[in-house]
Amino acid sequence: MKIDSMSTKEKVSEELLLEEETANQNEIVLFNDEVNTFDHVIETLISVCEHTPEQAEQCSLIVHYNGKCTVKTGEYKDLEPRCTLLLQAGLSAEIV
Under a CB-based contact definition with an 8 Å cutoff, are residues 42 and 57 in contact? Predict the structure, then answer.
């Protein structure tokens, strides 16, 4: 018989903390447009959202084919300046 070292109360507390942390997360959603080039979108995602080149390319393709893509998740205070930079770069984005 295996004895679980974590009590049920501890497990529930841990699950609630995880749910709380997830509930405080926001997302920057990038929308497709007919203006910006793939290169511009990729370069902007790398510099503003700290994406790897592969991540940025994948996001740009998702935006192109699906119309939108979540490009960054986190706390609002971290996302707001990033979203502003995306908008200043001519991209269409919002925090949800």
Answer: yes
pTM: 0.77
Angle at 81 between CA 75 and CA 84, to 5 degrees: 125
pLDDT tens-digit map of 16-29: 666 655 567 999 99
| CA–CA dist 50, 55 (Å, integer) | 9
E-strand ranges in 1-96 read 26-31, 68-74, 92-95
Residues near 73 by beta carbon (within 8 Å), at least 6 away in sequence: 25, 26, 27, 28
59: closest CA among 51, 50, 78, 89?
51
